[in-house]
Every structure is written in C-alpha cells, then in structure tokens.
Amino acid sequence: MAFRRRRTSGFTFVELMMTLAIMSVLALVTVPLAQLAVQRDKERELRAALADIREALDAYKRASEQGRIVTRLGESGYPPSLEVLVEGVEDQRSPVRKKLYFLRRIPRDPMVVGSETDPAASWGLRSYDSPPEEPVEGDDVFDVYSTSDRVGLNNVPYRDW
Fold this sequence. Notes:
The protein is mainly alpha-helical. The chain has two helices and four strands. A two-stranded antiparallel sheet has the order 1-2. Strands 3-4 form a two-stranded antiparallel sheet. The model has no long low-confidence stretch (mean pLDDT about 90).
C-alpha cells in the first residue's frame, strides 16, 4: 500500500496577497461613492430646508399684505427674524387673537459644520433692502442662504442656492 500525502488545507501567501489586492481595489472604489452619496444627501437636505424657510417667509409676507399681521409704515412686511416664524404672531383678523405659525422649527443649514450652532444662526440672512449680489442683514428677513464656502455637485456655490 502506498501512502498518499494529504495536502493540508489553508491559503498560500500568494492567495492572501491577491485577496488583499482585490479588497483594496474595492475599497478605493466604494469610499468615493459613499462620500458622494453623503454629499447628495446633504444637498437634498439643503434644498428642502431652503424651500421650507422661503415658503414660510412668503406666507408671512402674504399674511402681512392681508392685514393679518401688524406692520408699521415703511416696513417691508417680512419678519424681523427667523425665530418669529416659529414663535408665531397674533392674527389681527381673529376675534380671539389666535397666533399664526409659519414653521414648526427652524431647520439647520446642513452644510455648516458644528452641531452646537443655533439653527437660526447657521443661516445667512438677507434683508429686503439688500442687493442679491451682496446680501446683508437688516431690519427684516427677506431671504436666507447657506454660509458654507463649498461648491455643490452642480458647480454652484451653496451660498448661491
């Protein structure tokens, strides 16, 4: 009877190196894709937050034009701050002076780094009297913009969205 030598099971050094090479190539491909997905999600959040705030600003202005909010002579009819949209204002047409609310909460600018920032402070504010090219704060809030210096996937700075 001839004895056959049994081959011991396991991996050779070459097989291990090939496996590591394949895994590193896969990692090099998936990491940028994951970062791109994260950036897309943040951009989606930014679009939604801008739309919500701008819709609330427009609703406040409409309520002002309808005489439901007290405005003084010379005022634009836009809210004095973002917090007013959440805190609410008295409805002048309501017999019991119910409050009008325009936002449940102020969304945070997702492009601003640091979660300790107050959501209202994370946005740049533009007053009614300021030019669109160089927005500055004033007596009212006509528009909001991101204070991030980064550029979006569409090659437009987040500040210009």
